[in-house]
TrEMBL record:
Protein name: WD repeat containing protein
Gene3D superfamilies assigned: YVTN repeat-like/Quinoprotein amine dehydrogenase
Biased composition (Polar residues): 22-38
Family matches, as Pfam families: WD40 (PF00400)
Length: 454
């Protein structure tokens, strides 16, 4: 099986996530064998933080990768929940504060396949694509969430997925990207188009010495597509970002973006590229067509206070950038309506372990964490954020997430809310329905600048 460890790359620092494929039947995700229930009181609400850049070398595994076991005792009754919510409201709200909004949620589907860890997920046109340890990408149809196809290759471990203009882009553990064309003639079909980089072009370029760095020298961690410029970006643990021209699938630029491995990238509608790294920063890049061979230039560096950034997402309008970090915090930056410059807006606190994935839809932000939970956050009109729901059910770290506005195929009219798909390293794919309910405060968090000073 292909491994995300590359002989050409020095071992990533311990704070990086290293995705390992099962080499034997025993090397799978290990569940706890303890019969004693762990206490949540042992995990402080505020995760431990790094105090200096030198502590970047500290390992993430000083705290458990997975969360403490969730209680298997019967859930509290609705009367008990209402009483808890009332007590929370009395403790956290002053008389002049408006009532917090909340959410009711339920798991509407849970699927376990013998695919190993679920590593990537993408959605487009009523279809959801999931990638895992094996060489199969599964295609699911919404709203019934039934499997309707598979994309197979010889390579294993699908670490990143993107879908755009009926094309599916999948990054594998061998540091290559496979491309499929989706057609609807006589039913849903996927036709394999190419592999990036093309083997012939790579060999010729290597021999001629024109571009020995065409192929990533380390595992790919993230993909992003600039629709307007017809460009595909790929980020890697080799600390670089490759720029691929979609028309001919050629590498047209290599950005040496960070001094540490890059974990996530995302592109705004205006073409601005954001890169997140283990160096505890998010960098902003703009493309200038007059710069020749290196058109991408660094605009600004956003610090995340010594915590490696593992995930990125943008609001649909591109006005807010969110970054999930290994300390469990989600930092966000606001785009000025006049200047267009990003300014630090605050942090969302709640996860006890690293934030591994983020998604944004409408005024909701969904986060998945190594604490085995997902959280749904609502962005209020005043700019504050409220945690509407904590989605509990996975028994392993939540590695990937996607979200849709509204509901699919369910009775009733509930314009508020969203549908969330979560993939975990426990191999389970879950679909959740989150519906907003007024005057319920399940958990709220301040989002001011008291977290740190700029």
């Amino acid at each position: 099986m292909a491994s995300l460890e590359s002989s050409n790359v020095s071992p990533p620092n311990p704070s990086s996530f290293v995705l390992r494929g099962p080499t034997t039947t025993q090397n799978k995700f290990l569940r706890s064998t303890s019969t004693k229930e762990a206490s949540f009181s042992e995990f402080p609400y505020t995760p431990p933080r790094r105090s200096s850049p030198s502590s970047l070398s500290q390992s993430l595994h000083v705290s458990p990768v997975s969360s403490p076991l969730h209680p298997l005792s019967p859930l509290p009754s609705s009367k008990q929940i209402n009483q808890i919510n009332q007590n929370q409201n009395q403790q956290q709200q002053s008389p002049g504060d408006p009532p917090h909004s909340g959410a009711a949620y339920r798991c509407i589907s849970s699927v376990l396949k013998k695919d190993g860890q679920i590593l990537s997920i993408a959605a487009s046109n009523g279809l959801v694509y999931t990638g895992s340890d094996i060489n199969v990408i599964r295609v699911w149809k919404i709203p019934e969430f039934s499997e309707c196809g598979q994309l197979k290759t010889k390579a294993c471990m699908v670490v990143a997925l993107e879908v755009s203009h009926d094309r599916v882009y999948a990054a594998y553990g061998d540091a290559k990207i496979r491309v499929w064309q989706r057609t609807w003639d006589d039913g849903l079909k996927h036709v394999r188009l190419a592999t990036i980089p093309r083997t012939g072009n790579y060999v010729r370029s290597y021999i001629s010495g024109k571009d020995k760095m065409m192929k990533h020298m380390g595992p790919i961690t993230s993909l992003a597509i600039n629709v307007s410029d017809d460009i595909l970006y790929s980020a890697s643990l080799d600390k670089s970002v490759k720029v691929w021209r979609i028309s001919d699938l050629k590498c047209i630029e290599t950005i040496q973006a960070h001094p540490e491995p890059i974990n996530a990238i995302i592109v705004a509608d205006d073409g601005v590229l954001f890169t997140a790294s283990d160096d505890a920063t998010v960098k902003v890049w703009r493309r200038n067509f007059c710069r020749g061979d290196q058109p991408h230039s660094l605009t600004v560096t956003l610090p995340a206070k010594y915590s490696p950034v593992k995930a990125l997402t943008l609001t649909p309008d591109g006005g807010i950038l969110y970054g999930g970090c290994t300390d469990g915090y989600i930092h966000y930056w606001l785009k000025g309506w006049y200047s267009g410059q990003l300014q630090y807006g605050g942090s969302l606190q709640g996860h006890t372990h690293a934030v591994m994935c983020l998604a944004s839809v409408a005024n909701y932000v969904v986060s998945g964490s190594a604490d085995s939970t997902s959280r749904v956050w609502a962005r209020e009109p005043d700019g504050q954020h409220t945690c509407l729901a904590v989605l509990v059910g996975h028994r392993g770290p939540v590695r990937c997430v996607t979200a849709f506005a509204g509901r699919f195929g369910e009775e009733g009219d509930h314009p508020d809310g969203c549908t969330v798909c979560t993939g975990s390293l426990d191999g389970v794919l879950k679909v959740w329905r989150v519906t907003c309910v007024n005057n319920i405060n399940r958990c709220s968090t301040p989002s001011g600048c008291e977290y740190f000073e700029l």
